[in-house]
# Entry
Amino acid sequence: MEIDVVLPCLDEETALPWVLERMPDGYRPIVVDNGSTDGSAHVAAELGALVVSEPRRGFGAACHAGLLASTGEVVCFMDADASLDPGQLPRVTGPVVSGHADLMLGRRVPVPGAAWPLHARLGNAFLGRRLASRTGTRLRDIGPMRACRRADLLALNLADRRFGYPLEMVLRAADRGWRIAETGVDYLPRAGRSKVTGTVRGTLRAVGDMRKVLGEPGGTR
# Structure
């Protein structure tokens, strides 16, 4: 079975070598360059990744461009900042491949030295409660590592192109009756500063985007 891994990327030339070198056999990395000003695209191409350019800024825009470029039966998403280990992708894809889950999320479990600021954890917990109230789906983390079948995901017609994209994916999947589950994955010290959780402002922006998704009927924007 072909498995593609979408890696939204903004100035991650330092992290990409470690990330791409740890990609398991049979997993094809698709690095979506979202306007990097460093050598991310060149580094990714040199290391054998398929590089897609998405000029429209936004986490969701980058994720969706990678989804459209993918061809594998199963598609994964994960950050390109070395905060997650691609070697643990089989934990997330396994239940999807075996038919035991339709959408599988990696619940981040911080390792010693990993920085997961309090404001980011509180924001994540808030969204988890809102998600449970809205859909009955209980998740401990709206995590960035996830896997599902490509054709099914395309059929969800996700509309958000900002930080609401991951949450909209869960909402629409829940509305369609998908089996959604999570498994623990290591949350590692990332390379450089997070564009989202590294600042209170970044976290508030992400939570704000996700609240908009939660606040509209059907999870649409």
